[in-house]
Amino acid sequence: MPKKWPKGTPPEPPAPLRADNGELEEEGEPLAEEFERFFLCPLCGARVSVLLDPSVEEQTMIEDCEVCCQPLEIKYTIEEGKVAEFDVQAA
Q: pTM of the prediction?
């Protein structure tokens, strides 16, 4: 169960995420045609994912957290076929 935070209190910075194979997920990974990116929800702290399309060089989208259902603004940039930037904020 995700940790509950008092209103107005931001969660602690997340620890580095690990892919299912145990390796750290890092910026600059080579990409497939479409892929799943894991991150921690900035509102509830749950580990959730989003599908990214590497054929789009720069994108901003709004997606609901799969756990707390709150809207999240997801921004990413693809350079040379790799994730150059990835950011998630409360929308």
A: 0.63
